[in-house]
């Protein structure tokens, strides 16, 4: 119960930085004496610091309220994005500031041991030359696109075939002597958007939210009250819905899948006048997609038209995909929605679908969270708010030097 309450209080401080002890007590339902004791433990551990002092409102009897803030140097985390479009490793502090970043080898990895070596090498490079107390490095989060058993840390399927069937949490945890969490890109993006909404304006993502991320392929997930729905289902399944009139050949071997009409896979094929040219994930290169997005945003007519057509298809399809849950909002993320013509057309397609049913469409939110940032926020939430918080090692650890 003590660890639970510590995590609860820390969660309020991290989501709504600047709350006072009495304001947290009102929200948590504990006495101010209990909150004072818990915050003292969090301050002594280095996770929390006191900020400015403000005069309370008349309803607070003129009391002076001391703001509580997360202390950025109190804890550190490692994050990894493992997808075809984004393969990076980062070191981040408790405030979410990225302190170091490294790209993994550009070519798609063919050897799982070599991939592990590259990740471990990047981490060791981060840590060498710093005096970061090891006790303040709390854990590592990795995200990938596919199907993940997040409890076991096992990747059931992924676009990076070298990851399929791998126990990434155990393998990396054993090499680095750290706790590791592994999850899908979609769930991490959803959690990140919920956290940022609370940080930004104190708004909780109430009700169902539909989250789609579009790169070479396409993944979807559902949030309820800001919490991703947990399952071992493959988040990429929606990308294989058949689209009437679509002619592109998919990586699954079928013709007309949604990813051939609305994702980077099909967009690049149409721009090359060869919709069936990419037979496997290995034929896809991140710089090709980045160049196409840049061309569309620069107003290159052909690129803009292809992205616009893809966005319209996706927007119409989201209406069908989300009809059963009635989302209060739709969130789109990934490199493809960064193309303006795609984003505008997706909004038009979504509006068209709902208006056909006589309904007002939910707001469409274009996420600015990339896959690595989502992994960073997943690490912070997992190892400070979700798992039991053990302050013992932090109380004994020295303060981290400036990094």
Structural commentary:
The protein has 403 residues and is α/β, with parallel strands linked by helices. The chain is 40% helix and 20% strand. It folds into three domains: 2-70, Winged helix-like DNA-binding domain superfamily/Winged helix DNA-binding domain (Arc Repressor Mutant, subunit A, Orthogonal Bundle); 75-189 and 371-396, Nucleotidyltransferase, domain 5 (2-Layer Sandwich); 201-366, ATPase, nucleotide binding domain (Nucleotidyltransferase, domain 5). The chain has helices spanning 2-15, 21-28, 32-45, 112-127, 168-176, 185-201, 258-262, 264-271, 286-297, 301-322, 340-356, 371-386, 392-396; strands spanning 48-55, 64-70, 76-82, 87-93, 98-103, 137-144, 146-149, 154-158, 180-184, 208-214, 218-224, 227-228, 329-333, 364-366. The two termini are 34 Å apart. The model has no long low-confidence stretch (mean pLDDT 90).
What are the SSEs and their pairings?
Elements (H helix, E strand, L loop, with lengths): L1 H14 L5 H8 L3 H14 L2 E8 L8 E7 L5 E7 L4 E7 L4 E6 L8 H16 L9 E8 L1 E4 L4 E5 L9 H9 L3 E5 H17 L6 E7 L3 E7 L2 E2 L29 H5 L1 H8 L14 H12 L3 H22 L6 E5 L6 H17 L7 E3 L4 H16 L5 H5 L7
Parallel strand pairs: 3-6, 6-9, 10-13, 13-14
Antiparallel strand pairs: 1-2, 3-4, 4-5, 7-8, 10-11, 11-12
